[in-house]
Write a structure and sequence with these properties.
Layout (H helix, E strand, L loop, with lengths): L1 E4 L4 H14 L4 E5 L6 H4 L3 E3 L5 H10 L4 E4 L5 H6 L1 H22 L2 E3 L2 E2 L23 H20 L3 E2 L1 E3 L1 E3 L12 H11 L2 E4 L7 E5 H13 L11 E2 L3 E3 L1 H9 L6 E4 L3 H8 L8 H7 L7 H11 L1
Parallel strand pairs: 1-2, 1-4, 2-3, 4-5, 5-7, 6-8, 8-12, 9-11, 10-14
Antiparallel strand pairs: 11-13
Helix pairs in contact: 1-8, 3-5, 5-6, 7-9
Bound molecules: (3R)-3-hydroxy-L-norvaline.
InterPro entries: Epimerase_deHydtase (IPR001509), NAD(P)-bd_dom_sf (IPR036291), NAD(P)_epim/dehydratase (IPR051225)
Protein name: L-threonine 3-dehydrogenase
Family: Belongs to the NAD(P)-dependent epimerase/dehydratase family.
Length: 308
C-alpha cells in the first residue's frame, strides 16, 4: 500500500491517478492538507494530512499499513523565496516526519529533489550526478538538505530512501504552484486561450524540462528497481529536454501560427532560474535503472495542446 502526500499538487494529482490504475485504487492512499471534491479525493482512499504534524504522518501510515510513502507535500522555489521560514518548516519538517515514520514502521520512501539542488558554482552544462551543490535559494537548500537527510536515514537506519532531481515539469492535470518553471505550463494554456503569452523569464533562459508522463514513469521505475542496483539513491539526475522560452514559443507557433509571445521579467524568478543548470547529465539513472524519456519538445507540445 502506498501513501502519497501532496496529492493535490502538480505531480501528486497525476501520480495518484496513475498509481491507482497500476496498483488498484484501494492500495493508493492520497492525502493533502484539505479535501476538495475531485477525482483524486473520490477515486480511492483520501486522508486530510498536514505533514508538519509528526504524529499525524505516523498515524496515517499505521492506520493504512502502508509499505511505501511518496512524499510530495512541499513548497516550491518562488514561493519559498517569499516565505523562507515557512518553506523550511514545511519542506524539512515534513520530510523529517516522513523519515521518522519510515524508520519506525519499516517503510520505503520517495522524496523528490530538483535541479534546484544545484547552485551558481555548479557546472551548468551536462551537470554531473556528483558535483558541487551550493544552491542560493531556500528551496534549493531544502532540496540538498533533503538529499543528505534521506542518505543519512539509509546509511544509519537502513531506511530504503530514493529520490529524483526533477527538472521543470510540464503537465495539464493540475497546475504547479509557486514554481520558477511554471511558465512552461502557463504558456500552453495561454496559447490556447489568448493566442499570446507574456513570459516572466527571459527568452534565452535555458532549463531542463520534462513532460509529466516521463516523470511519473521515472518514479515508478526507480521505486520498483532492486535496491542494490541504486548507486546514487538521493537523488538521480533525470532530464528529457533542455529548452528556452523562445524555443517553446516557436514550437507552439507550428500549431498556432498566430501565437505571439513577449517578456516581462520577474527578477526574483529570473535570478533563481539563472542559478540553475542549463542541462543535466542523467547517465547514472540510465545505467542504474534504465531511465529514458519518451517526450521531447515536439511530442510534448503536441500532446499538451491536444489535452488542454
Ligand atoms: C520549481 N517546478 O519551479 C519546481 C522545480 C526545477 C523546478 O523544482 O520550483
Amino acid at each position: 500500500k502506498i501513501l502519497v502526500t501532496g496529492s493535490l499538487g502538480q505531480v501528486g494529482s497525476a501520480l495518484v491517478m496513475k498509481l491507482r490504475r497500476e496498483y488498484g485504487a484501494e492500495n493508493v492512499i492520497a492525502s493533502d492538507i484539505y479535501q476538495p471534491g475531485n477525482e483524486v479525493t473520490e477515486s480511492g482512499p483520501f486522508e486530510v494530512l498536514d505533514v508538519t504534524f509528526e504524529h499525524k504522518v505516523y498515524e496515517t501510515a499505521k492506520k493504512h499499513q502502508v509499505d511505501t510513502i511518496i512524499h510530495l507535500a512541499g513548497m516550491l522555489s518562488a514561493m519559498a523565496e517569499i516565505k523562507p521560514l515557512m518553506a523550511w518548516h514545511l519542506n524539512m519538517g515534513g520530510l523529517l516526519h516522513v523519515l521518522e515514520t519510515a524508520r519506525e514502521l519499516g517503510i520505503k520512501v520517495f522524496a523528490p529533489s530538483s535541479i534546484a539542488a544545484f547552485g551558481p558554482h555548479t557546472p551548468k552544462e551536462k551537470t554531473p550526478q556528483l558535483t558541487v551543490q551550493r544552491p542560493a535559494t531556500m528551496y534549493g537548500i531544502n532540496k540538498v538538505t533533503g538529499e543528505l537527510l534521506c542518505d543519512y536515514y539509509f546509511y544509519k537506519y537502513g531506511v530504503d530512501t530514493r529520490g529524483l532531481r526533477f527538472p521543470g515539469l510540464v503537465s495539464y492535470e493540475a497546475p504547479p504552484g509557486g514554481g520558477t518553471t511554471d511558465y512552461a505550463v502557463e504558456i500552453y494554456y495561454e496559447a490556447i486561450w489568448k493566442k499570446s503569452y507574456t513570459c516572466f523569464l527571459g527568452p534565452r533562459t535555458r532549463l531542463d524540462m520534462m513532460y509529466m508522463p516521463d516523470a511519473l514513469n521515472a518514479v515508478i521505475q526507480l521505486m520498483e528497481e532492486d535496491s542494490e542496483k541504486l548507486t546514487c539513491r538521493n537523488a538521480y539526475n533525470i532530464s528529457a529536454m533542455s529548452v528556452t522560452p523562445e524555443e517553446m514559443g516557436q514550437e507552439i507557433k507550428k500549431h498556432i501560427p498566430s501565437f505571439v509571445m513577449d517578456y516581462k521579467i520577474d527578477t526574483v524568478r529570473q535570478s533563481i532560474a539563472d542559478s540553475w543548470p542549463n542541462s543535466l547529465d542523467d547517465s547514472a539513472a540510465r545505467m542504474d535503472w534504465g531511465f529514458s524519456a519518451e517526450f521531447d519538445l515536439e511530442k510534448m507540445t503536441k500532446d499538451m495542446l491536444e489535452n488542454i
